[in-house]
Design a protein that fits this description.
98 residues, alpha+beta, four-stranded antiparallel β-sheet, three-stranded antiparallel β-sheet, 7 strands
């Protein structure tokens, strides 16, 4: 990503640094067979992730939880959570700071 004096260049054009906010994404996998699909999406959006915590073996290996700390604008967060939410057996919730 190229940084410019007043923002940075994205695929969509110039973006003001101030439009990005910190927040979290909570991901619950009730089907661990979907973990590779989730990981592919998280890798695609890795530039947004500041931190990640995962609990992979809950409820006798039937449930996994991933929590992300992100720095993103609303469009980026919506794209990430939208892709994750379309995966069967995956539940996603998110919020950004004001």
């Amino acid at each position: 990503m190229k940084y410019l004096r007043e923002g940075f260049l994205t695929q969509g054009g110039l973006m003001d640094k101030a439009s990005k906010r910190y927040g979290f994404v909570g991901i619950i996998l009730s089907d661990r067979g979907q973990a590779p699909a989730v990981q592919r999406i998280l890798s695609e959006y890795g530039h947004l992730v500041c931190g990640r915590m995962g609990l992979p073996h809950l409820e006798n290996d039937t449930l996994s939880v991933i929590t992300l700390i992100v720095h993103a604008d609303t469009d980026e967060l919506g794209a990430l959570t939208g892709k994750l939410g379309r995966i069967s057996g995956v539940s996603v919730k998110s919020a950004l700071s004001k």
